[in-house]
């Protein structure tokens, strides 16, 4: 084949690549997937006493703007709301959290409400859960929840920081939990409704932490009764689990589901 023919063939190939778009780039930004529940560590390891913080708060905030968890040495309940992380300590009060603080267990997502439910008067904890269940598409998705309202009464708890050798979580809760009761308080419950198949990794069913509107008090929700409010639901379709590198995690032994039920209640 002559050199002229090779030149014509090469020119044709270059023209094809140019006009087919193979050599061009697009300025459109990549679409991120916010429907992801991100979690560090597992609930079973926390129950077994794996309390050493592994992930820094600054890294956790890159994975979501709403959620819950705890802190290094089990020092208080974590509330993540509007991209900020708060600590409800054993004294029942809320404290700001430094980005270098660490967590042994937490779950977060970027919240985008897919549905909203209006809460009527005299809605207790059981009625609230039933109302949510009746309005979700089905039991097998992961749901992030934000409940804002006026609480006629509210029971919350937290636990103090632990020292090594760490005891199992059930023992800590039974012996050291601090429970606080509030009346006529405005605030927000953040948490998750997770399917049965998540057990051993996270808490199946409902799990909520509370922070008041003034960001002064908060903790793990034990019971509540609302006079008014709303539930925002974010349907979540993907799950990412990050496992700690700490020896306390790798050595932790699993617990049965009855232990988790006793702790959550």
Automatic annotation (TrEMBL):
Signal peptide residue numbers: none
PANTHER family noted in UniProt: ALPHA-ACETOLACTATE DECARBOXYLASE
Record field: compositional bias (Basic and acidic residues): 254-265
NCBIfam families tied to this protein: acetolac_decarb
Reaction catalyzed: (2S)-2-acetolactate + H(+) = (R)-acetoin + CO2
Keyword check for Lyase: yes
InterPro entries: Acetolactate_a_deCO2ase
Protein name: Alpha-acetolactate decarboxylase
Region (Disordered): 245-265
One BP term from GO: acetoin biosynthetic process
Gene3D superfamilies: Hypothetical protein, similar to alpha- acetolactate decarboxylase, domain 2
Metabolic or biological pathway, per its Swiss-Prot or TrEMBL entry: Polyol metabolism; (R,R)-butane-2,3-diol biosynthesis; (R,R)-butane-2,3-diol from pyruvate: step 2/3
Annotated organism of origin: Methanohalophilus euhalobius
Keywords: Acetoin biosynthesis, Decarboxylase, Lyase
EC number: 4.1.1.5
MF terms (GO), sorted A to Z: acetolactate decarboxylase activity
Residues forming coiled coils: none
Enzyme class at the top of the EC tree: lyase
Record-stated family: Belongs to the alpha-acetolactate decarboxylase family.
